[in-house]
């Protein structure tokens, strides 16, 4: 067992940290200390200490949430999400599990790959908080799947540059189906916002080198619909 795996095993050996890790893994979006404090009934300092050990073990990733009030300085909220490299370990789902379920749906129904992906994306989008920025949701989903997205935002247009392809083997064998499934997934998440964000294009690259670009536009039309 490597030192990294030993550190992860020690971190998850504590029942509270194990429960925290599972909650972060199962959450539909990145979670913050306040959410975890309310869920587990522990002092926020205890939650932070447990999270620090999970971060140090490479089990979760700590991010700084985007400012919700432009122009107002202050301490930004920290959020936590599963580390993509640990997907499929310690009882967590693998991105390939989701891909296999989408492919099974594709085979069983004979529907278009983008349509299958969009249906799954709408389910993901409806689980997010009503006030969550849809671009944040798309970025979080891409990160959870292991795409390592890098966000580029200019006025009303947004791009997520996908620095890694977690489905390199499958995408190399059939890029049309795999890329269409994930474009549909993004479109479905965007549709669940009621038109606040629209996916305009997915520029596919060689999966061995990654760098695909998911292009979006913010709109003023539409209202969030999670019915």
Characterization of the model:
This protein is α+β, with helices and mostly antiparallel strands and about 230 residues long. The protein folds into two domains: about 80 residues, Winged helix-like DNA-binding domain superfamily/Winged helix DNA-binding domain (Arc Repressor Mutant, subunit A, Orthogonal Bundle), CATH 1.10.10; about 120 residues, Muramoyl-pentapeptide Carboxypeptidase, domain 2 (2-Layer Sandwich), CATH 3.30.1380. β6 and β7 form a beta hairpin. The C terminus is likely disordered.
List the helices and strands and how they pair.
Elements lengths: L2 H10 L2 H12 L4 E2 H8 L3 H13 L3 E5 L13 E5 L12 H15 L3 H15 L6 H12 L3 E6 L2 E6 L5 H6 L1 H17 L5 E7 L8 E7 L9
Antiparallel strand pairs: 1-3, 2-3, 4-5, 5-7, 6-7
Helix pairs in contact: 1-4, 2-4, 5-6, 6-9
What labels describe this entry?
48% helix; 9 helices; 17% strand; 7 strands; alpha+beta; Muramoyl-pentapeptide Carboxypeptidase, domain 2; 2 domains; 227 residues; disordered C terminus; Arc Repressor Mutant, subunit A; 4-stranded antiparallel β-sheet; globular; 3-stranded antiparallel β-sheet
Describe this structure in a few short sentences.
With 227 residues, the protein is an alpha+beta fold. The protein has nine helices and seven strands. The termini are far apart.
């Amino acid at each position: 067992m490597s030192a990294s795996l030993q550190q992860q095993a020690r971190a998850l050996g504590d029942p509270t940290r194990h429960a925290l890790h599972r909650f972060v893994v199962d959450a539909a979006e990145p979670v913050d200390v306040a959410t975890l404090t309310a869920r587990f009934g522990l002092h926020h300092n205890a939650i932070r200490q447990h999270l620090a050990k999970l971060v140090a073990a490479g089990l979760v990733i700590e991010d700084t949430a985007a400012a919700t009030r432009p122009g107002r300085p202050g301490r930004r909220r920290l959020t936590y999400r599963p580390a993509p490299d640990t997907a499929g370990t310690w009882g967590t789902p693998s991105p390939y599990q989701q891909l296999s379920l989408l492919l099974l749906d594709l085979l069983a129904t004979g529907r278009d790959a983008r349509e299958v992906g969009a249906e799954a994306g709408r389910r993901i989008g409806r689980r997010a908080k009503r006030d969550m920025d849809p671009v944040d949701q798309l970025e979080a989903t891409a990160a959870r799947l292991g795409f390592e997205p890098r966000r580029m935002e200019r006025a009303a247009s947004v791009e997520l540059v996908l620095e890694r392809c977690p489905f390199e083997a499958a995408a190399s064998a059939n890029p049309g189906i795999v890329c269409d499934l994930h474009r549909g997934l993004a479109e479905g998440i965007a549709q669940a916002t009621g038109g606040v964000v629209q996916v305009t294009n997915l520029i596919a690259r060689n999966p061995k080198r990654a760098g695909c670009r998911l292009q979006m536009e913010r709109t003023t039309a539409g209202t969030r619909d999670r019915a």
